[in-house]
Amino acid sequence: MRLSGWRRSGLLLAAMFLSAAGDAPTAAEQDHRGMMRQLGIVELRPGPSGDPEAPNAANYDPAKANPYSVWPDLMTMADGRPVTSAAMWKRERRPELVELFEREIYGRIPALAPTVTWRVDSADREFIGGRPVLAQQLIGHLDNRGAPQIAVDIRATLVVPANAKGPVPLLIMFAPARYPAPSQPDARDAARLDEAMKALLLQRDPSLAAIFAKHPGLAFVEPGSFPPTPPRDDRVTTLIADGWGVALLDTASIQADDGAGLREGVIGLANQGRARTPEQWGALRAWGWGASRLLDYLTKRREVDAAHVGVEGVSRWGKAALVAAAFDERFATVLIGSSGEGGVKPHRRTFGEQVENLTGAGSYHWMAGNFLKYGAEKGRPGRKTAADIPVDAHELLALVAPRLAFVSYGIPAQGDAEWLDQQGSYMATIAAGRAWTLLGKRDLGRGNDYRAAVIPPPTTALIDGELAWRQHEGGHTDAPNMETFLRWADQKIGRR
Ligand code: GCU
């Protein structure tokens, strides 16, 4: 194709314009740069690409994946003393690890985090897999007297079996908070809605009467059918069928999933609209905090067995579920779905997603600002890498011990990408096991030599211990592991 001179320069101008617009930093990029300035970071290394065809593709060669052969030792205190007893773990090592994860990785919750007042906004009687449930929309209102311009109302949907004989165990799931299987109007109500709908249409266009006359059976609103509409999420069906309750917790209502939102949500509210300091919490910690506040409320509901409330999530929500359970010892169990980097995947593995991917403007908001240091190439912190992080993922997972932790992944062939590093996550789970055995519980039962650990074939369920592992044969979801999770959790909490 030939272009005339003016057309060519026009295109050139348009291209220049577009790239200039593309260069204007977004709100997230501005906030990210502000955090770099606070830390004196001049340059961050870019993370590798998830696209295997890209010139900067992430490493997927297992032979090159372990340049850091020694991970921080779970059972050695920072001052070199070995951890020799359960008491020493609880009194010294666990608090030391908590402090490091707060300061360097996920951030601290402000001492004066807003208080939450919960109320039931609406209720619905639904059927899930043929079983009656009570479903309620909950609103957790955050006290915003310190910054009235920032309103935060946490949304959650509570679903409990209607015919339970006593309090039920419950799983808080990071998921959209909506009615799982909304009840439908009966024949009478449906007819009334339908009449009102037709009247409205006739008001707008009286000539429609001819069409209605031609099709006397036409209905805009159909009465609810039997069996009732199946729920939107079959994990909920599995949980209800097993007699568990569910609470769907909407993370976006706690804290937005981007850097642009850091001056709003609970993080912004606690800061009265100011930018974060490097030690303050990121979105993962804020979402975990939200789960803890929901737990506060659930412990007061008589339908819920407060001693057996767990937390679940997949992907970024899998990271958040692990963070929630690691810091808040009231969670009896955690189902960690496909959590990857920032979750169970070791920082010290050159395979798939890297520390540098989480220090960039697209993901840094999940973490404390301090975490940016470990992607720094130039500046005040000097050049730092994953090897400089004082802790690693196996130690985060170990914070859940001796409680119940289930690590779940799918397979790359079905879309649970290699990016997540299933093998590395298995190694971290193996390494974490020592915390369970020290505390008198069982780990995966495959030793603790993470360097020699090889991921077992998919569908191998390592569920004898309080720490469990299973890679299912599905994709980027934990739904195919829900039944195994329940079989394991029920047995461990004495329901079977
Ligand atoms: C990206 C990101 C992961 C994250 C995932 C998700 O792939 O790199 O760290 O877990 O998104 O949450 O969907």
Characterize the biggest β-sheet: 9 strands, mixed
Uncertain segments are 1-20
**If you consult CATH, what is the topology of the largest domain?**
Rossmann fold
Termini separation (Å)? 73 Å
Give the class-level CATH name of the largest domain: Alpha Beta
Q: Structural class of the helix and strand makeup? A: alpha/beta
**Bound chemical compounds:** alpha-D-glucopyranuronic acid
- Which architecture of the largest domain does the CATH hierarchy give at level 2? 3-Layer(aba) Sandwich
Q: Could you tell me the mean pLDDT?
A: 94
Determine Rg (CA atoms, Å).
26 Å
Number of domains: 3
Within CATH, the superfamily of the largest domain carries the name Alpha/Beta hydrolase fold, catalytic domain
Number of strands: 11
Strand order of the largest sheet: 2-3-4-6-5-7-8-10-11
Helix content: 25-40%
H and E string: HHEHEEEEHHHEHHEHEHEHEHEH
- SS field, number of helical segments: 13
Shape: globular
Which percent range describes the beta-strand content? 15-25%
Ordered list of secondary-structure elements with their pairings:
Blueprint: H1 5-23, H2 27-39, E1 41-44, H3 86-106, E2 116-128, E3 131-142, E4 153-161, E5 168-174, H4 187-204, H5 209-214, H6 234-241, E6 245-249, H7 265-270, H8 283-298, E7 304-314, H9 316-327, E8 333-337, H10 355-358, E9 376-379, H11 393-398, E10 404-409, H12 422-438, E11 467-471, H13 482-492
Parallel strand pairs: 5-6, 5-7, 7-8, 8-10, 10-11
Antiparallel strand pairs: 1-9, 2-3, 3-4, 4-6
Helix pairs in contact: 8-9
The structure holds alpha-D-glucopyranuronic acid (GCU).
